[in-house]
Amino acid sequence: MRTIPRDLFNQANLLENLGHLYIELETIAKENILVDEDPERDSFEMSVDGYSNSQSIKSIFIKVNGENQSVYRYINSRERYSLYCMDMLTEEEIEVFDKDGKLSTDFLEYAVNEKEDQELEIKSSLGDEEYQDNLNSNPKTKVP
Predict the structure, then answer these.
(1) In this structure, is residue 78 part of a structural domain?
(2) What are phi and psi of 75, to 5 degrees?
(3) What's the total number of domains in the chain?
């Protein structure tokens, strides 16, 4: 059962945090991190997890290196920037923003490390020479 005004403020804060995340990601222009939405859904469907006391929007998620990551906010949080991301592989909770609303060091390290880990995995499966050939065949990663 919803309680007004508490639930209105909780949902508004979640939407504000997601909008802020989108803007912050645009300013750093990282290709491997983006806010995405489910094209099958045409509205912001709120979801409440009673077990963790958190809320999210079912149709919006963060993609890190092509992998969907759960993003949520704890209900009744008093922090202005209280958004979290769940690493689905390690089930580690990562704070998305610092107290000033900038992307947190932990979140940025998580996204960068994910990309580096994937590159190392590809490199080890291909071998050094084949990996370098792969990089050189891509105009974005071509080494002069």
Answers:
(1) yes
(2) -65, 140
(3) 1
